[in-house]
Design a protein that fits this description.
Blueprint: E1 12-16, H1 27-41, E2 45-51, E3 67-70, E4 76-77, H2 80-88, H3 97-104, E5 110-113, H4 117-129, E6 134-137, H5 146-157, E7 161-162, H6 165-171, E8 182-185, H7 188-198, E9 202-204, H8 211-214, H9 219-225, E10 233-238, H10 247-257, E11 262-267, H11 273-285, E12 292-296, H12 303-310, E13 311-316, H13 325-332, E14 337-340, H14 343-352, E15 357-359, H15 364-375, H16 378-394, H17 398-418
Parallel strand pairs: 1-2, 1-5, 2-3, 5-6, 6-8, 8-9, 10-11, 10-13, 11-12, 13-14, 14-15
Antiparallel strand pairs: 4-7
Length: about 425
């Protein structure tokens, strides 16, 4: 979908993503949609740039935030399935189209990257050549969980040949973080690690949650939409099917720790086909074909709130989370969340304190025990749900997040003007 950007002299900001696809929605897309719509209301001129995607019109951003598509490609040789997986999730894509567009756009004040790698390097080059600043938000593991990231990258690139290294070198892809005017992180662990590289240019922000949207959930609508588990007691995990979200751990813990009358519902697009197949085999091997349901991608505005309204407990056993939007959405829907304690999830566990539900490890036995104890104690579930709801009302507002981003932009532009 191509739209003409609204001209706002000195305040036009382009948000550059490596992917924007409503069929495979995730936390980064939610963040960009919520923040850009509010930035527009604050008098900024945000627009979103993303690689070519679905042809159907976008209905998430609204008319005040133009969506422009650029041409990107996957510079890897190897099996088609593995190349598709890179396009779907965290692959190091490349573009020549986007930096040319940005370099020629004289009305642009600032670029806001939501990706690093070669696309980030292309934007870095365009902005530096035209003497304009850029900032970057880190939505995934980077320095704080470097070993996990390296292992995951090696797994995804196994059997592929990377032909894009010269492009990365040309655009200075390894300098994206170092040359950014600000590096935005969403957890304290990552901020500390990045501050060792960029000093006080590393800043931490919270994420937010749409309380009104999450309050629209209806358990009755969920029962009508998904009659196969309408009479069950439901435990839910919302997130893309990928090793990061750790659905296999959830299934293994559920097999041991959940009562027979409970069903586990996994909602999210499969962005890693190999992991999706592993998950399917695990469900069958554990004899859970009738009690574990893989729903695929859900509509964030209607289906996710309904599913949460039906759920007794939401699981977040992720191997890494920059922040953990799934936790906020569960709390906003009035549901307790059982979450791991690391990366961004550690910040959320600290925010809710002892009234929350958490597991200090990613061991199946520990998760099974925590699940068993939580589901056997309705009073404990209610306490956690109330505490989470109080947290999102008091602290996690998209309006506050957008205001802080606007302040950051203003500071960056004023620094540039002084120089």
């Amino acid at each position: 979908m191509h739209m003409t950007a609204v001209e706002r002299p000195g305040r036009r900001v382009v948000h550059v993503l490596r992917k924007y696809d409503p069929r495979e929605w995730g936390g980064t897309e939610t963040h960009v949609v919520e923040v850009t719509r509010r930035l527009a209301a604050l008098g900024w001129g945000p627009e979103v740039h993303a690689p070519a995607g679905p042809s159907e019109p976008d209905r998430a951003l609204g008319p005040e935030v133009p969506l422009l598509r650029y041409q990107a490609f996957c510079p890897f040789l190897g099996p088609a399935e593995k190349r598709r997986a890179l396009v779907a999730n965290a692959g190091n894509l490349a573009t020549f189209d986007e930096p040319l567009r940005l370099a020629k756009d004289a009305g642009l004040a600032l670029a806001h990257l939501h990706t690093a790698g070669r696309i980030g390097g292309a934007v870095r080059t365009a902005m530096r050549l035209t003497r304009r600043p850029y900032v970057i938000s880190v939505h995934g593991p980077l320095l704080a969980r470097k070993s996990w990231l390296e292992q995951d990258t090696a797994r995804r690139l196994s059997g592929l040949m990377d032909m894009g290294q010269p492009i990365g070198w040309l655009f200075g892809a390894r300098r994206v973080i170092q040359d950014a005017a600000r590096v935005i992180t969403f957890n304290e662990e990552e901020r500390r690690a990045l501050s060792e590289v960029v000093g006080d240019r590393a800043v931490r922000l919270d994420q937010g949650v749409d309380l009104k949207r999450m309050a629209t959930g209806s358990a009755q609508r969920a029962r009508e939409r998904w009659p196969r588990f309408a009479r069950a007691r439901v435990v839910t995990l919302v997130g893309r099917i990928s090793p990061q979200k750790n659905q296999v751990l959830a299934v293994r813990a559920f097999a041991v720790g959940a009562p027979e009358d409970h069903h586990l519902v996994l909602a999210g697009a499969t962005v890693d086909a190999a992991y999706g197949e592993q998950l399917k085999q695990e469900i069958q091997a554990l004899g859970l074909g009738e009690r574990v349901h893989v729903l695929g991608n859900l509509d964030a505005a209607r289906e996710v709130p309904d599913l949460l309204a039906l759920s007794r407990l939401v699981l977040v056993p992720s191997a890494h989370e920059a922040f953990g939007l799934a936790v906020l959405e569960a709390w906003a829907a009035g549901r307790p969340a059982l979450l791991a304690v690391h990366s961004g999830l550690a910040d959320l566990a600290g925010a809710i304190g002892p009234e929350g539900l958490s597991v200090p490890t990613l061991e199946v036995e520990d998760w099974a025990q925590a699940l068993r104890q939580a589901l056997a104690n309705p009073v404990r579930l209610d306490v956690a749900a109330r505490a989470g709801a109080a947290q999102v009302r008091q602290r996690f507002s998209w309006d506050v997040v957008a205001s802080k981003v606007a302040e950051l932009y203003q500071a960056v532009l004023e620094e540039g003007a002084r120089r």
